[in-house]
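Bug: token stream looks shifted between consecutive jobs. Job 1:
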Amino acid sequence: MPPLRFVAKALSTEGVPPSELGMSMAPHPLMYQELAHDPEYQIYNGRLTPVRFADVSATEMYWKVRREVILRHTGELPIELVGPDAERLANRVFPRDVSKVRVGRCAYQFACYHDGGMINDGVMLRLAEDRFWMAQANGDLYGWYRAHAADLDVEVRDPDVWVSQVQGPRSLEVLAAVVDGEPPEPFRYFDIAEVSIAGQPVVITRSGFTNELGWEFYLTPDIDREAVGDRVLDVGRQFGMIITSAQVFRARRIEAGLLNAGSDFDRTVSPFEAGLGRFVDLNKP
């Protein structure tokens, strides 16, 4: 058999009965912004994420994020830990000391099996003393949380939150123009803030997967997600913004030394072997 690649495509549902299998391919609420580019999708955390556009090359995306600004809708999956024992659960699952993460701050985290093999990584948001979102890379952490939470007073849930990224040298100019009122100040790397965009309350973080200046916004189910997305894209175009697929990150994250779960580490690799030993605290609670 010749080498093949497998992708998902967006097709009309007219005259086609729904399929139960479609439940494992959830579309981003702002996917409609991508459809004009004839995108190809792959599954990431049970969500559809674009891996290629027919009319925008990887080279064009690369230079946009290096020189101007891009918008990218991700397949990252935030899982919420909430309750009196949320911090205890997080400290059972992650090798970094979660108690050191202040409310209103993010932290890079990863989970390991009992033998040290790595499961997954992502960015953890501490929204309150007893509430966290872990925006994870592709993989299953939900079952791992539940297995470690049996004796704890904590809820593990999918809050139906979707993540998009604005990245590039002009990204903070876009932020200043897109929010209703003044942008957050200070807004340091890994800070969390709540702003108003198109009249909607939106959680944002100073984070991303490009090692460029950038921020991410989190779309909760109780807001008008399309109003937020349309505002970001419409304003962003004034700064040269284009919408991109996962191709924008491939070269850039390698240049920046950012690891990718599944290709740079997996269950056979320990944090020390992956060069992440500095994030392991063997003396934490």
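Job 2, same session, no restart:
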Amino acid sequence: AAAIVEDGVSVRSSVVASQHELHAEYGGVVPEIASRAHVERVVPIIRLALDGARVSLGDLGSIGVGHRPGLIGPLLVGVSAAKSLAWTLGVPLIGVDHVHAHLYAGLLGSDRPAFPALGLVVSGGHSSIYRMDSPTQLVRLGATIDDAVGEAFDKAATVLGLAHPGGPNLERLAQGGDPKAHKLPISRLGKDSLDFSFSGLKTAMLYAVRGRPDSSGHFPRAHEDLSEQARRDLAASFQHACISAITLKLARAADANPDCRTLLTGGGVTANTPLRDALRAFAQVRGLDLRLPEMRFCVDNGAMIAGLAHERLRAGIEDDLTLAPVPTTAC
């Protein structure tokens, strides 16, 4: 992905090269295939972003790059390209945590909200809650201790026999389903915990679809044995449990941080319509200024990276050519 962003909020262009078609037959992302696709597409995508914004390389004032967390291969490609551009153009290089950038996605094309704020990132790899004193000053309050919610959606979709990408397909299947047909578990952990856990829900979903395995590991049924309405009810019930877990932990975070009057959200799962509706209802009851990203900025994109890079540069934060890709981070 690549984007041209002016003044941190005005998106001049944003180009994303989806790889869904490359990974669909494997039911998930294959790191080596993702790395090769990045190598092949990074230069054409940058050119498309420049053309879309009607600017040239010489018009760029700085280069932002997502350098953590993620798959090491794609990160190496992106960081190398960004370093090359910054060095050639003689402009600042700013490394950005892409999870933190998801929290900035809702500010693109928008006015600046009040801080401090609560931040929620829900994606295929991350489920985290933050306290934010500014876009660049944040502390993680809680995170998943096992599966991220997007990963749980994908695994539940696989159990139901749905194709990749699982999350959007499960949402579609859930339409017309009864979210209260199955009482699936909602993880609470400790009474004050702000961490998430979706592994128990995932297992409960597996048993609801296929039954409990016998001593030899054999399941009594398959998803093909279920009626279409039964599959819809299971999808709706699973989705409802995920959303309930998210709003439960947000409520705890809001209670523990009463001075936060803004809720920033981001990540691929914020494209889920029932979750967006639940977040709007939560924010209204709590009197919070909710910032949901536009649908196009929910998934990983260059605009959120560029926007947060602008904020970091304004705060006097920039990197040099020793900037390294970091595949994992606990930030």
